[in-house]
UniProtKB/TrEMBL annotation:
Superkingdom of origin: Bacteria
Name of this protein: M28 family peptidase
Keyword terms of this UniProt record: Signal
Source organism (scientific name): Mucilaginibacter gilvus
Signal peptide, first to last residue: 1-18
GO molecular function list: metalloexopeptidase activity
UniProt-listed GO biological process terms: proteolysis
Length: 383
């Protein structure tokens, strides 16, 4: 434990010495590294990420929101794949993540058999209760339940012949009470401490499938975590008239579970939140950003656009209505004014093994950072 803490402190020291885009690049590289194993349910990936983020916040001078710990603990059920994930089709061993995925709600199975074609994309091994599908893109997720059969998705582009025989050895582990937590910090306001601006991002991702394949989650959502940490670092050094709060959610990939838990067990009075900005998929931006809830809060959206035009930060700020597609949603449902911002253009990797730091441009990281600073100035300058 002491060695682990020393490693985290060393990483924190190295990262806080960097600035701007260098800081962002180093942070994304770190969060997507093998050490964090996709920030999921195997190899303690999510736990390691939570510890790392907490150490970062402490190094910035950001205080625990609860007054004691950065961690707001909660738990939920999840299906995981910590062991063997071996698949052969037509006698050829396939590579997990690249050639195939096991759907996250599948049960484990060991056996071999013949596949019967059902239609152009579905094949069944009835004896072993296995369904094989051909997919245009392999996209993984997280699930809280387990089926009584197994679904194997193959990359359609890589199949030169139709699947006819199958041999598998797949181990799943259903965890009924996976323990994790949100990471929550504050920088107290100097003039109006009961008026709060909140920045959020989910730090969890999909973790690993077997012991050789993990999903790095660079754009989703090491990029958002990095932007919120950049803001936490800045505001830790520059306290504002309003209180600045920072929440990193767990369980987003399994169904917005962390943000739902926080809104049901808030560590701050939700009525005191002047505005909440949720950041997810922040690694590109050559085509601008989209703002969910823009049409719900037209006054704040007009301010955001005005700030962007004055500063010439992003090429476009698109308006979108209400959507339950990220962690802002349960706050909005509780009456908290909130935006969810995501960047547009560039790489298409999403929920796959190709969402890596090396190909994430972070080309608008600094512009978005500065846009958010000025937007917050506008919110705090209201009369």
């Amino acid at each position: 434990m002491k060695l682990k803490l020393l490693t985290l402190l060393l990483l924190a020291t190295q990262l806080t010495q960097a600035q701007d885009i260098k800081f962002a690049r180093k942070m994304v590289d770190t969060l997507t590294s093998k050490y964090f194993w996709g920030r999921g349910y195997t190899n303690d990936g999510m736990g390691k990420a939570a510890d790392f983020i907490s150490v970062q916040l402490k190094s910035y001078g950001v205080k625990p929101m609860s007054g004691k710990s950065y961690l707001q603990e909660f738990s939920y059920s999840v299906n995981a794949f910590p062991g063997k994930v071996e698949v052969e089709i037509n006698g050829i061993a396939l590579v997990p993540g690249k050639d195939f995925l096991i759907t996250p709600d599948s049960k484990g199975v060991k056996g071999e058999g013949k596949l019967t074609q059902q239609d152009s994309t579905h094949f069944i091994d009835q004896a072993n209760r296995i369904i094989v599908t051909l997919e245009n893109k392999l996209t993984w997720s997280a699930e809280q339940t387990v089926l009584d059969y197994t679904v194997i998705q193959l990359d359609k582009k890589l199949q030169t012949t139709l699947p006819q025989t199958i041999k598998v050895d797949i181990e799943n582990k259903f965890i009924p009470n996976f323990k994790t937590g949100n990471i929550c910090g504050v920088v107290k306001g100097t003039v109006k401490p009961d008026s709060i601006i909140v920045f959020t991002a989910h730090y969890d991702h999909l973790g690993g499938m077997g012991d050789k394949t993990f999903f790095p989650g660079a754009n989703d959502n090491a990029s958002g975590v990095t932007q919120v940490l950049s803001l936490a670092k800045y505001y830790g050094e520059h306290p504002q008239p309003y209180t600045m709060a920072f929440i990193f959610f767990a369980g987003e990939e399994a169904g917005l579970l962390g943000s739902k838990y926080f809104t049901e067990h808030p560590l701050i009075d939700l009525k005191n939140i002047r505005f909440l900005i949720n950041l997810d998929l922040e690694g590109t931006g050559i085509e601008g950003i989209t703002v969910v809830n823009a049409s719900v809060f037209p006054k704040e959206f007009a301010l955001l656009k005005q700030v962007n035009e004055k500063g010439n930060y992003l090429v476009k700020v698109n308006s979108r209505g209400k959507a339950a597609n990220s962690d802002h949603y349960f706050f909005s449902e509780k009456g908290v004014p909130a935006f969810f911002m995501y960047t547009l253009g560039g790489i298409k990797a999403y929920h796959d093994i190709y969402d890596i730091s090396a190909t994430l441009p972070l080309n608008e990281h600094e512009d978005l950072f500065n846009l958010l600073l000025k937007f917050n100035d506008g919110l705090m300058g209201e009369r």
